[in-house]
Amino acid sequence: MADRYLGFTGTAPGRFLTRRLGLPQPAPLRRWSPERPELDGGLLHLTAGKSDLDLAPVLARTGLGPDDTGRPAAVVLDASGIRDVDGLAAVHAALHPVLRSVAESGRVVVLGAPLDPTDHHQAAAQQALEGFTRSLGKEIGRGRTVNLVRLTDAPAAESTLRFLLSPRSAYVSGQVIGTGAYETPLPHDVDRPLSGRTALVTGAARGIGEAVAETLARDGAKVVVLDVPGAEADARRVAERLGGTALPLDITAADAGARIVEALPDGLDVLVHNAGITRDRRLVNMPAERWSPVLEVNLASVLRTTDALLAAGALKRGGRIVATASIAGIAGNAGQTNYGASKAGITGLVRALAPHALAGHGVTVNAVAPGFIETKMTAAVPLFIREAGRRMNSLAQGGLPVDVAETTAWLAHPASGAVNGQVVRVCGQSLLGA
User: What digits encode the pLDDT tens for the residues 285-315?
Assistant: First the structure.
């Protein structure tokens, strides 16, 4: 369903009326397309405090040249060297003069350092960057995004910076992303980084799952479209269009993991747990038959399947697991105790499994947490609730399935090995949750 309010605010009468009434004024977001794969404009690189990071080679490969117009498409502020409260003044001094000049749908990325447990002054100052980043994201407006990356090694964070400084991250804002020192080189074909890799996407016959499959196929992956047998026709339609294969399978079946291993004798490089259901009702009115299926599909099947594939060695070294959480699991949502529990469980799975999967199998484990995404399901939500969902984020609009897909593709990227154990919200910086 089209966002008519967004279209209205793009007209002269709409801008006048919404400004006079103090209503949200969302800006159309600039998303990736083959014709315009990069942001329009240059990059302004600033430093607050003393930094040991050598960012120049990495930033030179983002596709954005140095800004020479005074109207940058992106600003990168290296604040990794800030170690005390006094140093935070340099953050203000660097960004205060330039924020008004950042182009519409532009990017601000703040670089910080991991918190030093032996230095509470450094930890306080670096933690302050998180509150600063989230607050700036809520006020910057005009389709611009603000994110914080904590890093120790610039080359290891290259895929993350390329993603955040591109149109692919249009609906990702207010996020704090940690990267380690696990460096993997960029693929030879930067336009098709998943060439030669196999990706399995569950619940991929429609909606967000279909968009994820499309995006991974665009990036070169051979995609396996998994969905329930009842959606086999749709799954085959998607697979044929993408040059992949369909796998009709109930992911909750006890032998689902074994059947995936059997269907993929050559192994798997990317596993995307997207399948999910809702059975909404307030807890006092929720019978067990509405509770159990949600926990079974959204969480238990993810745990079982992941365990089975790792135990069988079906996920190759350098592999990627990306699960789907939700802001409902972060902030909670009335009528969704079952769904919120299942999605919070995904966060626990990711954070606990990530270090062991990387150490034992060479596989990273991350999650995307969508907010209000424009799908057939949200189109059926009552008007006023739907409008609240759209407007209650810093970008004042709903996201698109492709926004979740682009974030998934970044986490699945061969050069994203330094990103592990992260839960990244794709919610336009929802005003609910952290």
Answer: 999 999 999 999 999 999 999 999 999 999 9
Global pTM?
0.96
Contact 356, 346 (CB under 8 A): no
Give phi and psi for 399, each to the nearest 5: -90, 175
Residue among 214, 130, 197, 146 nearest 415 (CA): 197
CA distance 366 to 372: 20
Report the alpha-carbon distance of residue 296 to residue 288 in Å, rounded: 12
Position 4 scores a pLDDT of 85
Render pLDDT for 313-369 as a digit per residue (tens, 0 to 9).
999 999 999 999 999 999 999 999 999 999 999 999 999 999 999 999 999 999 999
Question: Residues near 359 by Cβ (< 8 Å), separated by ≥ 6?
Answer: none
Out of 5, 171, 182, 339, the active site residue is 339
Q: Would you say 346 and 353 are in contact if contact means Cβ atoms under 8 Å apart?
A: no
The burial of 47, by beta-carbon neighbours within 10 Å (0-12 exposed, 13-18 middle, 19 or more buried), is given as middle
- DSSP category for residue 430: B
Give the whole-angstrom CA distance, residue 41 versus residue 45. Answer: 13
* Helix or strand (DSSP H, E) at 120: helix 120-139
Residues 271, 248: contact at Cβ < 8 Å? no
pLDDT in the model for residue 434 = 58
Where residue 129 falls among pLDDT bands split at 50, 70, 90? very high
182 is catalytic: no
Band (184; pLDDT cuts 50, 70, 90) = confident
User: Cα separation of 83 and 177, whole Å?
Assistant: 19
DSSP character string of 318-384: EEEEEEE--THHHH--TT-HHHHHHHHHHHHHHHHHHHHHHHHHS-EEEEEEE-SB-SHHHHTS-HH
Q: How far apart are CA 361 and CA 121, in angstroms?
A: 37
415: which 2 tokens? 């050069």
CA separation for the pair 198, 212 (Å, rounded): 13
